[in-house]
Design brief:
Layout (H helix, E strand, L loop, with lengths): L1 E4 L10 E4 L2 E4 L4 H13 L5 E2 L7 H4 L5 H17 L27 H7 L12 H20 L4 E5 L20 H11 L5 E5 L6 H7 L5 E8 L24 E6 L5 H18 L3 E6 L18 H10 L5 E5 L5 H16 L1
Parallel strand pairs: 1-4, 1-5, 5-10, 6-7, 6-9, 7-8, 9-10
Antiparallel strand pairs: 2-3
Helix pairs in contact: 1-10, 5-6, 8-9, 9-10
Bound molecules: N-{4-[(3-aminopropyl)amino]butyl}acetamide (Q9C) and zinc ion (ZN).
Family: Belongs to the histone deacetylase family.
Cofactor: Zn(2+)
Protein name: Histone deacetylase family protein
């Protein structure tokens, strides 16, 4: 398979995130991707490629709003303009417009703009964030283009991850929604029904929001129950889609502590939904934070299980774009990711 990895990913390297009320070292670190690349050296899965340029802005605008993209492109310079000493710090949001507040008037104040375009304080933004996120989007788009050109599978190996990013907001370590960009690229390339299957531990709220009113992209997510698990405010089973999209979103929340047999049975429900939809291509949002050793998650999958996850998904027989999402057991994430790929191609 073609594997597009992000040569600029390490330009996004956060110092601290707000986690359970305290600033702690970031979980989403450059080492994660380097471990996957190292494992791919040991167990090659195909051609390792890098995109040669950032994507055309018009392709990003298929999924994200123009004013959000303008904000991301200029956020770092604005942060430093507030105070030159900020150049030594990451930018984190601290104030948000909740129910009843105005989101239509863009504030001039930088902290207020950060809050308007985000939903948590766990996602630091720094000098290289925009370059890294754009090149990551280029990986996802290149993977989709490869599948449109006839490849059975392609992998976008990139960070920062994407599935929490919505049409006009960042959060959950995500800025541009790579899986949604790939799904939209498959649609724009002429594939009529595309399914996104999100197996990250956390609900794929951004992807759900992007496609919630649409019947041409089915979104399915298996995740920790939002009553106790991040992102908390979306991901319940009764969210089935709206308007034209009614019936085209499926959430399969599971309790913290869920083990492999239950998780796998739930995967079968997800795959049945993808089959029932008549999907002609699949985007797999591949979070590896369902691993038993993950420091911020609560499922109990083991390394060997990921091969079976891949094989079960491959049984759909669909052309597939895989995007790299979460997975914070850094030393094991390479083995787990490549196990998943091995199962997919077996
Ligand atoms: N302040 C992904 O796996 N943790 N994102 C809580 C809240 C956020 C996980 C931070 C977890 C985000 C792509
Ligand atoms: Zn996650």
């Amino acid at each position: 398979m073609k594997i597009f990895h992000n040569p600029l990913h390490a330009q996004h390297a956060g110092r601290q995130e707000m986690y359970r009320g305290r600033l702690v070292p970031c979980h989403e670190v450059p080492d994660r991707l380097d471990h996957v690349l190292n494992e791919l050296q040991r167990r090659p899965m195909g051609d390792l490629l890098t995109p040669n340029a950032a994507p055309e802005r018009s392709r990003l605008e298929r999924v994200h709003s123009a004013r959000y993209l303008d904000f991301l492109a200029s956020a770092w310079d604005q942060w430093v303009a507030v105070d030159p000493a900020n150049a030594a710090l990451d930018a984190l949001p601290s104030v948000w417009p909740v129910r009843g507040f105005r989101a239509d008037v863009e504030p001039e104040n930088f902290a207020a703009r950060m809050g308007l375009y985000s939903f948590d304080a766990g996602t630091p933004l720094m000098a290289g964030t925009w370059a890294a996120a754009q090149m990551g989007a280029a990986c996802a788009l290149a993977a989709a283009d490869a599948v449109l050109a006839g490849e059975r599978r392609a992998f976008a190996l990139t960070r920062p991850p994407g599935h929490h990013a919505g049409p006009d907001f960042f959060g959950g370590y995500c800025f541009l929604n790579n899986a949604a960009l790939a799904a939209q690229a498959l649609r724009d390339g002429g594939i009529e029904r595309v399914a996104v299957l999100d197996v990250d531990y956390h609900h794929g709220n951004g992807t759900q929001s992007i496609f919630y009113e649409r019947a041409d992209v089915l979104t399915v997510s298996i995740h920790g129950d939002p009553r106790t698990e991040y992102p908390f405010f979306l991901g319940h089973a009764d969210e089935r889609g709206a308007d034209d999209g009614a019936g085209f979103n499926l959430n399969l929340p599971l309790p913290r502590g869920t083990n492999w047999p239950t998780w796998r049975a739930t995967l079968q429900r997800a795959l049945d939904a993808v089959r029932g939809f008549g999907a002609q291509a699949l985007v797999l949002a591949a979070g590896l934070d369902t691993f038993e050793g993950d420091p911020i998650s609560g499922f109990h999958l083991r390394s060997g299980d990921y091969q079976q996850v891949g094989a079960d998904i491959a049984a759909l027989g669909l052309p597939t774009v895989v995007t790299f999402e979460g997975g914070y057991a850094v030393a094991e994430v390479g083995v787990n990711a490549v196990n998943l790929l091995q199962g997919l191609v077996a």
